[in-house]
Amino acid sequence: MKIEVLPTKTEMAAASADRAAAAIRAAVEARGRAHVIAATGASQFEFLDALVRRPGVDWARTVFFHLDEYVGLPATHPASFRRYLRERIVERVHPAAFHFIEGDAPDIKGEVERVNALIRAQGIDIAFVGIGENGHLAFNDPPADFETDEPYIVVALDEACRRQQLGEGWFPRLEDVPARAVSMSIRQVMKSHEIVAVVPDARKAQAVHDCLEGPVSPQHPASILQRHPRTTIYLDELAAALLTLRG
Fold first, then answer.
1. Residue 146 to residue 120: CA distance in whole angstroms
2. What is the pLDDT of residues 125-166, one digit of tens each?
3. How confident is the model at residue 59 (pLDDT cuts 50, 70, 90)?
């Protein structure tokens, strides 16, 4: 795991986009196609905007997988991660494929089995992730399941996670935030050849400290990234404010 601290959110987005674009180009050159996991949320806005502007990326040779999605939320909802990713990736660069999680599928168990079968067939070249205010990785809230080998699982969202979604403006009331989601599992995220974590803002500082300088623990789910040899954590100065170790 490597930590990169940039002075501003804009510089953080540019540096992380450079790294992600380089990884995609390398995968396409080596194997003819890049398999990518895409995250969502307010933390990814500037990063994704910078990434899709990077030159020399053959987006027609990329295949994307969805990191997580709310259970029961239609794709038309303003907080839908499918909507977010269509607007910020699919409609801008037109990848070869984007395997979305249909969180409002009538048979959610069957939907999980469907996406599990799809991702099991592929190695993932690079995953984009964030770190939640409660330390979650994807929607694996504490205490996270570090043991399951299932690629995607249905999880319950804790109150801290749901309040983060409310605070970011995705929902008008806490009771409107879904209580469950389909999330990529911890072990599946860790199978990625490379991970780029983009974590801006002061509200993430405590979680960043706990996950990057504390022990690896299900109570701090993103702490597992300490054990991934090709993870780079990109922080702005506000998110890095409580760290004692950098670089």
1. 18
2. 999 999 999 999 999 999 999 999 999 999 999 999 999 999
3. very high
For the record, the structure tokens of 226 come out as 């300490």
Start-to-end C-alpha separation, the chain: 9
Q: What pLDDT does residue 223 have?
A: 98
For 6, the token pair is 């940039």
**Taking the CA of residue 114 as centre, how many other CA atoms within 13 Å lie in the half-sphere pointing to its CB?**
13
Q: pLDDT tens across 164-204, in order?
A: 999 999 999 999 999 999 999 999 999 999 999 999 999 99
pTM over 0.85: yes
Pairwise CA distance, residues 215 & 13, whole Å: 27
> For residue 144, what are the contacts with CB-CB under 8 A and spacing of at least 6?
136, 137, 186, 218, 221, 224
- What CATH class does 2-236 carry? alpha beta
Length of the chain: 247
CA angle 246, 14, 76 (to 5 degrees): 115
Q: Grade residue 46 by pLDDT with cuts at 50, 70 and 90.
A: very high
